[in-house]
Amino acid sequence: MLADLSGIAPDQLTSCARIEALLRMSAQAAGAHILHSHFHGFGPGLGVTGVVLLAESHISIHTWPEQQFAAVDIFMCGAAAPQRALDVLRTALAPAHCRVRTVQRCAVDEAITE
């Protein structure tokens, strides 16, 4: 799932600790298994970038508080439920708008050639 969340209060998008806790909570809600996480803040009042590495793949985020925007990738396989992860993020960040695109991946032998 690729989610573009806009219209978020800027103060919700600047804390590495808060964003990391939120992504970890969303991974747990999805039933995913957290392996590691790494987050970087770009300075006071600036955005955050980070990733939670999962046994099922990852959740990543990039925030732009000056644009009230966050880009989130939720990539999961197996029994994990990515929609639950997105629901947690939407509830916590309360975006005015959320555009979600779902990309289905498949093994090479299952791929459709055009």
From TrEMBL:
Coiled-coil regions, chain positions: none
Entry keyword set: Autocatalytic cleavage, Decarboxylase, Lyase, Polyamine biosynthesis, Pyruvate, S-adenosyl-L-methionine, Schiff base, Spermidine biosynthesis, Zymogen
GO terms for MF: adenosylmethionine decarboxylase activity
Record's keyword annotation contains Lyase: yes
Documented EC number(s): 4.1.1.50
Cofactor needs: pyruvate
Pfam entry (one): AdoMet_dc
Gene3D superfamilies associated with the record: 3.30.160.750, S-adenosylmethionine decarboxylase domain (3.30.360.110)
NCBIfam families tied to this protein: SAM_DCase_Bsu
Protein name: Adenosylmethionine decarboxylase
